[in-house]
Design goal:
With 175 residues, this protein is an alpha/beta fold. It has eight helices and five strands. The longest helix is centred in the first third of the chain and has 24 residues.
């Protein structure tokens, strides 16, 4: 089986919830890249964005991905934009199985309406404006997300199915 699993998808898709469940089920370490970033930098991602900008954040995010890609037996939840760089998606695919948790823009909007704090790309967006923003961002990110080894329906696939999907995806054939 693969030495690690990367969960990708838009913010609010369930990467953290599914990641914790899967790590527990596999008896592996769970790594949330957003939380690790904040812990190491001593500030929120929102604060980091404000102070240093998105470009610097993305550079630091790639460095963090390079480090976590060496952790054995880990389920890694990435930030929503982490795979949206060809170098990053290649790192993930070379070092593990990549699972895209796909959720519709409408459902993401409902989920994120309740959890916009600390998400710099969503600040000051409400209702249809939020749904439109999500739809546009998803359109930009789909080319990267769709490179995943496994694409799941993040609205209907039971958590228990993730382990089976990963076990059925032979790691040796991925590389």
């Amino acid at each position: 089986m693969t030495p690690r699993v990367y969960l990708i998808g838009f913010m609010g898709s369930g990467k953290t919830t599914i990641g914790k469940f899967l790590a527990h089920d596999l008896k592996w370490q769970y790594v949330d890249m957003d939380h690790l970033f904040e812990s190491e930098k001593g500030c929120s991602i929102s604060q980091y964005f404000s102070e240093y900008g998105e470009e610097n954040f993305r550079k630091e995010e790639t460095l963090l991905l390079e480090r976590v890609s060496t952790i054995p037996n880990a389920v890694i939840s990435t930030g929503g934009g982490t795979p949206c760089n060809q170098h990053n998606i290649e790192i993930m695919k070379k070092t593990g199985v990549v699972v895209y948790i796909n959720v519709t823009p409408e459902n993401l909007s409902i989920r994120l309406q309740k959890a916009k704090n600390g998400r710099p790309l969503l600040e000051n967006k409400t209702g249809e404006e939020l749904t439109t923003f999500i739809r546009e961002k998803l359109t930009q990110r789909e080319e990267f997300y769709r490179q995943a080894n496994i694409i799941t329906d993040g609205e209907n696939v039971p958590f228990s199915t993730y382990r089976t999907l990963i076990e059925l995806c032979p790691y040796d054939e991925i590389n």
